[in-house]
C-alpha cells in the first residue's frame, strides 16, 4: 500500500519533477554566503552587536516559540487542515504553563503547555474534521475563545482577593512566578569563543559569536525544540505513518481508497499541531517565569508565516523562525543602531534581486527593486537612526517582505483547506 500511496501523492503534485531541488552543498553554500554578507555588513557599519553571542542567543530564544508554532502549522496543513488557530493554542499553552508552573516547577509547566495547546487543537479538529466547519472560521473562533478563556480564568484563579495565587505574587493579568528552567553551558568552549569574538576579526569573530550562542546558557527546551524539528522530518518524510498523513493533505479520496482512515490522521495531525503550539506558548511563560496577559504577541501568526515561507518543510520553517527571531531580538536588544545598519544590508539584497530580475528579462520588477535599493541607501546615509515605531515593527515588516519575495515558489498541499467527507469519492 505504501507504493500506491507514493504514486497517489506524486500525482497530486503537478510539476514537482520539473522543480530544481536545493541539494545540501547548495544549502551550505548559501549559509556560508549569508555569513560572509553579515560579516561585511558588521565591518562596514561598525555595529558589533550584529553578530554578538548576546544577539544570537536572544535570537535563538525568540525563534523557539515562533518555530514551534510554525512546526505545529506544518503538521496540521500537511494533513489538509488549515490552522489559523495557532495563536489561540499558544495562549492556552502559556496560560496552562503559568498555572501549573508556579505550583510544580518549569518541567511540569512545559507538559501543561503541551496539554493546553492540544486541547485547542482538539476543538479545532472536532469543528473542521467531524463537523466540516470552514477551517478559517474555526481557527478564528479558537483564537477568540482562547483569549476570552485565559483572561477569565486568570482573573478567577490568579486575581481572587486573598487567594494563594495572589499571595504568591499573582494578579488578574499574570500568574505567580515559577522557578527557573535549567540551562547548560559548555565549559571552556564558551569562554574561548567569547574571547575570539572580542577581537572583532573579520568572519572569524562573527562565526565565534554565532557558535557561542549555541553553547552558552541554552535552555533545555531549546534542545527539545531542535529534536522536534529533526523528529518531524523523519516521521513525516521517512515513515509510512508520515506518508499516509501527507497523502491526506494531497489526495484524501485516493488515500481513503487505499485503506487510510483519513479522519484519524487529520485528528492526529491537528492534535500534534496544537501540542507544539502550546509548547511554544509554555516556552514564553517559562522564559520570563510567569504567564502574562497578551504574552504571545502575535507569534502564532508569525509562526504561520514561517510555515508558508518554509514551503511546508521543517528546514524552511527553522530558517524562517531564525530570521524572525533575529529581527525580534534585534529590536529588543539593540534597537535603532542595528536596524539602521540593516538598511544597508537590505539595500544590497534588493540590488542583487534587481540584477536577477533583469537577467530574467523582468524589467519592471528589476526597476522597482533597484529603486527601493536606492531609497534605502539614501536613507542610510542621510539619517543616523530610524524611528522607534519602525524599530518595534521591524519583525512584522520582515514577515511581510519575506512572504512577498518567496510567494512565487510556494506549493502548499493540494487538498489543504478543502472540505472532505468520508466516502465522497464513491
From TrEMBL:
<protein>
    <submittedName>
        <fullName>ABC transporter permease</fullName>
    </submittedName>
</protein>
<keyword id="KW-1133">Transmembrane helix</keyword>
<feature type="transmembrane region" description="Helical">
    <location>
        <begin position="108"/>
        <end position="133"/>
    </location>
</feature>
<feature type="transmembrane region" description="Helical">
    <location>
        <begin position="365"/>
        <end position="382"/>
    </location>
</feature>
<keyword id="KW-0472">Membrane</keyword>
<feature type="transmembrane region" description="Helical">
    <location>
        <begin position="267"/>
        <end position="291"/>
    </location>
</feature>
<feature type="transmembrane region" description="Helical">
    <location>
        <begin position="210"/>
        <end position="237"/>
    </location>
</feature>
<dbReference type="InterPro" id="IPR001851">
    <property type="entry name" value="ABC_transp_permease"/>
</dbReference>
<feature type="transmembrane region" description="Helical">
    <location>
        <begin position="81"/>
        <end position="102"/>
    </location>
</feature>
<dbReference type="Pfam" id="PF02653">
    <property type="entry name" value="BPD_transp_2"/>
</dbReference>
<keyword id="KW-0812">Transmembrane</keyword>
<feature type="transmembrane region" description="Helical">
    <location>
        <begin position="394"/>
        <end position="412"/>
    </location>
</feature>
<feature type="transmembrane region" description="Helical">
    <location>
        <begin position="56"/>
        <end position="74"/>
    </location>
</feature>
<feature type="transmembrane region" description="Helical">
    <location>
        <begin position="26"/>
        <end position="44"/>
    </location>
</feature>
<keyword id="KW-1003">Cell membrane</keyword>
<feature type="transmembrane region" description="Helical">
    <location>
        <begin position="140"/>
        <end position="159"/>
    </location>
</feature>
<feature type="transmembrane region" description="Helical">
    <location>
        <begin position="339"/>
        <end position="358"/>
    </location>
</feature>
Amino acid at each position: 500500500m505504501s507504493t500506491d500511496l507514493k504514486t497517489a501523492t506524486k500525482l497530486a503534485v503537478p510539476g514537482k519533477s520539473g522543480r530544481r531541488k536545493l541539494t545540501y552543498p547548495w544549502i551550505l553554500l548559501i549559509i556560508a554566503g549569508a555569513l560572509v554578507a553579515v560579516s561585511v555588513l558588521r565591518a562596514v557599519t561598525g555595529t558589533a552587536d550584529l553578530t554578538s553571542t548576546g544577539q544570537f542567543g536572544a535570537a535563538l530564544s525568540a525563534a523557539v516559540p515562533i518555530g514551534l508554532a510554525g512546526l505545529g502549522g506544518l503538521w496540521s496543513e500537511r494533513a489538509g487542515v488549515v490552522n489559523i488557530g495557532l495563536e489561540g493554542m499558544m495562549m492556552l499553552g502559556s496560560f496552562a504553563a503559568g498555572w501549573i508552573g508556579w505550583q510544580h516547577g518549569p518541567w511540569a509547566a512545559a507538559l501543561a503547555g503541551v496539554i493546553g495547546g492540544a486541547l485547542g487543537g482538539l476543538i479545532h479538529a472536532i469543528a473542521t474534521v467531524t463537523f466540516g466547519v470552514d477551517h478559517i472560521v474555526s481557527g478564528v473562533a479558537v483564537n477568540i475563545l482562547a483569549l476570552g478563556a485565559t483572561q477569565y480564568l486568570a482573573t478567577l484563579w490568579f486575581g481572587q482577593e486573598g487567594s494563594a495565587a495572589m499571595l504568591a505574587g499573582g494578579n488578574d493579568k499574570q500568574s505567580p512566578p515559577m522557578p527557573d528552567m535549567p540551562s547548560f553551558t559548555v565549559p571552556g568552549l564558551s569562554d574561548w569563543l567569547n574571547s575570539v569574538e572580542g577581537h572583532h576579526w573579520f568572519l572569524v569573530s562573527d562565526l565565534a559569536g554565532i557558535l557561542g550562542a549555541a553553547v552558552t546558557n541554552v535552555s533545555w527546551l531549546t534542545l527539545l525544540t531542535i529534536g522536534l524539528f529533526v523528529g518531524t522530518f523523519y516521521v513525516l518524510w521517512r515513515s509510512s505513518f508520515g506518508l499516509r498523513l501527507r497523502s491526506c493533505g494531497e489526495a484524501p479520496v485516493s488515500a481513503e481508497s487505499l485503506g487510510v482512515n483519513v479522519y484519524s490522521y487529520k485528528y492526529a495531525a491537528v492534535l500534534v499541531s496544537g501540542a507544539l503550539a502550546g509548547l511554544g506558548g509554555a516556552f514564553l511563560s517559562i522564559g520570563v517565569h510567569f504567564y502574562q496577559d497578551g504574552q504571545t504577541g502575535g507569534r502564532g501568526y508569525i509562526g504561520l508565516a514561517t510555515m508558508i515561507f518554509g514551503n511546508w518543510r521543517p528546514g524552511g520553517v527553522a530558517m524562517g523562525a531564525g530570521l524572525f527571531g533575529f529581527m525580534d531580538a534585534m529590536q529588543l536588544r539593540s534597537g535603532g543602531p542595528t536596524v539602521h545598519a540593516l538598511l544597508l544590508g537590505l539595500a544590497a539584497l534588493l540590488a542583487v534581486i534587481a540584477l536577477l530580475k533583469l537577467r530574467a528579462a523582468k524589467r519592471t520588477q528589476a526597476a522597482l527593486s533597484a529603486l527601493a535599493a536606492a531609497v534605502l541607501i539614501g536613507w542610510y546615509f542621510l539619517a543616523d537612526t530610524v524611528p522607534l515605531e519602525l524599530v518595534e515593527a521591524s519583525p512584522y515588516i520582515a514577515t511581510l517582505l519575506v512572504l512577498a519575495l518567496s510567494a512565487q515558489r510556494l506549493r502548499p498541499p493540494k487538498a489543504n483547506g478543502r472540505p472532505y467527507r468520508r466516502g465522497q469519492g464513491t
